[in-house]
Amino acid sequence: MSAFFQTNFGIVILTVLESLALIVPLLIGVAYLTYFERRVMGAIQLRRGPNIVGPFGLWQPFADALKMLFKETIIPTGADRLLFIIAPMITFGLAVVAWAVIPVNDHWAIANINVGVLYLFAISSLGVYGIIIAGWASNSKYAFLGALRSAAQMVSYEVSMGFIIVTVLVCVGTLNLNDIVLAQRHLWLAIPLFPLFVIFFISGLAETNRAPFDLAEGESEIVAGFFVEYSAMSFALFFLGEYANMILISGMTTTLFLGGWLSPLPFAPFTLIPGVFWFLFKVLLCLFVFVWVRATLPRLRYDQLMALGWKVFLPISLVYLVAVAGVMEYFGWLPNV
User: Fold this and answer.
1) Which of 29, 169, 219, 263 has its CA at a distance of 20 to 30 angstroms from the CA of residue 298?
2) Considering Cα of 293, then 294, then 298, then 304, what sign does the dihedral take?
3) Quick check: 156 and 288 in contact, CB under 8 A?
4) What's the total number of domains in the chain?
5) Containing H/E element for 137?
6) What band does 8 get if pLDDT is binned at 50, 70 and 90?
7) Mean pLDDT score, 11-25
């Protein structure tokens, strides 16, 4: 059996199986994240949430998927048909392929490469293209305005996130995400880098166009934004892409700051629990905060959104990067990997 997987064909088959082992649970997780969000928001706002389709409403995500699947895809007359169809595929596809380097346990990643952080940088920077293409190809003023808002927002907050990730790299001395997690076996980076941890998570809210930073979807002024002309499965792909990006940001936060799959306490029975469980538990905590923020905070004005990114987060992250690098250089602290 091992000789079979050493051949080129066997390597391809193994890669496909590994990809399916990641993508299928991810798609199920995205589906039930919508259920989780609606139930949590219902509890916060003192209402029930989904509770009709199946026991406790557990089949509601599949009912929504079937509804979208059987609806007609309407393409506006003046739209660029090819780009109009490709845009949601780009958005959802990038949210999925970024998981190739995220380790859910020790060396449990499809591609355990030494430049995993650079891979995430590249994928995250491409995410804006799907939204820009959707806004332009729709041939709608509202869609184009929403796309411009979203592009400016994502680019603005990517700068701060980039400096924060560079600070993490300075602390651990590696671009390999698996080694970044192992470097936190004695101390999670969320503790010494707590301000950057908070800024990174808030920037993740802005990066995924989530409340209170959902200006790209401002229903009150631009009628749902860049996907206003989309329907059926093309709309569903944007919808799923947003939730897949939420899980991705939560996975990145867990990997970079919360010790990944490592247990919170270094003694039994915590160390006996599988690392995958701890990774999923931390991701769920981050997702709960995503939902909690949406249910409680109002939408910002656009000038407040941009001022927060450029005048607050960017200076703090830059100063913190210089300070951390200076302290480590002065005291001669070497990364413990």
Assistant:
1) 29
2) positive
3) no
4) 2
5) helix 116-137
6) low
7) 80
